[in-house]
Design brief:
- By secondary structure, the chain is an alpha/beta fold.
- It has 2 domains: about 170 residues, 3-Layer(aba) Sandwich (Rossmann fold), CATH 3.40.50; about 200 residues, Up-down Bundle (Dehydroquinate synthase-like, alpha domain), CATH 1.20.1090.10.
- It has 14 helices and 8 strands.
- Strands 1-8-5-4-2-3 form a 6-stranded parallel β-sheet, with helices on both faces.
- A hairpin with a 4-residue loop joins strand 6 and strand 7.
- Helix 10 packs across helix 14.
- The longest helix is centred in the middle third of the chain and has 23 residues.
- The radius of gyration is 20 Å and the shape is globular.
- The mean pLDDT is about 95.
């Protein structure tokens, strides 16, 4: 096992009726900015519960954070929050709202001239306005980590950032908030969380059996509960299991002491930035081709994954690996998620555009072995057509 440090200060408040806990978690006398997306929280009762919990606070609302939150929109929120002297932010929504709120919180106190530098240049935030979250869409795990991914519409770019100052102070996870979600969003959340685990698990062995088995537990739970959620999205226990699995997939626990990949995410972000494809669906497109392309360097973990998660035990190593990748594809497609670029009307021209962008950016050394270069990305995407 590799050396590691682990830190996660997020307080999780889980279960039915727990939105009321916001009242005691938000500091007294705080001037609160409430951030949310398109307004679905006003139709499903979540907004009313949140406002009841904030009845003793001054509240400024900022509505309209998009899926794949846009820098341009978030900077409007930053300006409003600064003028309103906001000193606490409450994000109510899914990963995009929470990611956007992390950026708002950091940008409000950013000392430089251009907050975009935190994303494009990797400059770490040195402080941020405190914030909490009420999760309504499980999948990204953003409710219990410090990372975020932001899109800049002007340049069609999508970058990640994070710092020790962008952990939520608390996150409320009430599975009942998911009951009105469209099936597409549930599917996306399951696929997103599943791939988060694989990015931290399908690398190479370092004798970390506890992390492996914790990762496999999350994968098996998502495998079992995901299809149930599509059949009955109002089942509390199913949605509770999915919500907690998605949180555990990316709160840092399963990644300690082990190598991680994240090349699938890096490549997938380009597809979202250029074509607006749902984040989870870009992962389902890229991952199978990447696993086939890197199957020799991932061989031991692919065989382990196949046996422990999908029950693949028969055949040569190559046959077992292909059966494992096919099982993964079938799982995504059982969630009504297509896994080829052509399913999204994306052709070779997009691959050429991505290659050019990565060349201009100087991208290199992706993956757990730092051995995925631009020419490899081109081959992986070509295999995904």
């Amino acid at each position: 096992m590799n050396n590691f440090q682990f830190y996660n200060p997020v307080k999780i408040i889980f279960g039915k009726g727990q939105i009321a806990a916001v009242a005691r978690e938000v500091p007294a006398n705080a001037r609160v900015m409430l951030t949310y997306g398109g307004g679905s929280i006003k139709k499903n009762g979540v907004y009313d519960q949140v406002m009841a919990a904030l009845k003793n606070h001054q509240v400024i609302e900022f509505q309209g954070i998009e899926p794949n939150p846009r820098y341009e929109t978030l900077m409007q929120a930053v300006s409003i929050a600064r003028r309103g002297q906001v000193d606490f932010i409450l994000a109510v929504g899914g990963g995009s709202v929470i990611d956007g709120t992390k950026f708002i919180a950091a940008a409000m106190l950013y000392d430089g001239d251009n907050p975009w530098d935190m994303l494009s240049k990797g400059i770490k935030a040195k402080k941020a306005v405190p914030f909490g979250t009420v999760l309504t869409l499980p999948g990204t795990g953003s409710e219990m980590n410090s990372g975020a991914v932001i899109t800049r519409a002007e340049t069609s770019e999508k970058f990640s950032f994070g710092s020790p100052f962008t952990f939520p102070q608390f996150s409320v996870l009430d599975p009942e908030t998911t009951f009105t979600l469209p099936l597409r969003q549930i599917s996306n959340g399951v696929a997103d969380a599943f791939t988060h685990v694989l990015e931290q698990y399908l690398t190479y062995p370092v004798n970390a059996p506890l992390q492996d088995r914790m990762a496999e537990a999350v994968l098996l739970t998502l495998k079992e509960e995901g299809p149930k959620a599509l059949d009955n999205p109002h089942d509390y226990d199913t949605m509770a299991n999915i919500m907690w699995s998605a949180t555990m997939a990316l709160n840092g626990v399963i990644r300690v002491g082990v190598p991680t990949d994240w090349a699938t995410h890096y490549i997938g972000h380009e597809l979202t930035a250029l074509h607006g494809i749902d984040h989870a669906r870009t992962l389902a497109i890229v991952l199978p081709s990447l696993l086939r392309y890197k199957q020799e360097t991932k061989k031991e973990k692919l065989l382990q994954y196949g046996e422990r998660v999908w029950g693949v035990t028969v055949g040569t190593d190559d046959e077992k690996i292909e059966a494992t990748i096919q099982a993964t594809i079938s799982f995504f497609e059982s969630l009504d998620i297509r896994t080829r670029l052509q399913d999204y009307d994306v052709d070779e021209a997009t691959i050429r555009t991505i290659v050019k962008r990565l060349q201009e950016r100087g991208t290199k050394n992706l993956g757990e072995r730092a051995d995925i270069q631009i020419e490899d990305i081109e081959k992986i995407l070509t295999r995904s057509l």
